[in-house]
Design brief:
This protein is an all-alpha fold. It has one domain. About 95% of the residues lie in helices and about 0% in strands. The radius of gyration is 64 Å and the shape is rod-shaped. The N terminus is likely disordered. It comes from Oxyruncus cristatus. This is Biogenesis of lysosome-related organelles complex 1 subunit 5.
Length: about 170
Amino acid sequence: DRRREAPGAGSPIQAIIKDVGEIYSRLLDHRPVIQGEIRYFVKEFEEKRGLRELRVLENLKNTVFETNEHVLPKCEQAMHDNLNETFKRLQAANDMIHRLQEKECEVRKLQADKVMAREEKCIAHWEEFMKEQQNKRAEVDEEHRKAMERLKEQYSEMEKELAKYVSF
């Protein structure tokens, strides 16, 4: 039996090795199948999607060109016009605000002048009132002094009269 097992062209080990190789390639070696699937996928992608992708890219190119050549200049012009108009309106509003501030300043100055005039008038009235009070006080003091003198004279006369009666 050893002769049969010895390596050779028709030996059973060679057949087993060959069978194992075939089983391995069928069960575990997927390269031929995967390569076929890859070729099929690439073919499908190039045929079906490739043209669609080219159309999409062409449409995008046309859209970008249209935007750059026509839409963008229109937008820039519209924006420039609107910004100029907005700037003019803001300038007019700013001028109106400055005029309002000037008027308000004038009104405040007039009010301050009126208040100052009223204060000066009040101060003048107060000074006049105080002068009148001093004059009245002086008059009252003078009347009091005169009344005191009359009373003194009257009492001195009464004392003289009394002195006449006390000597009895």
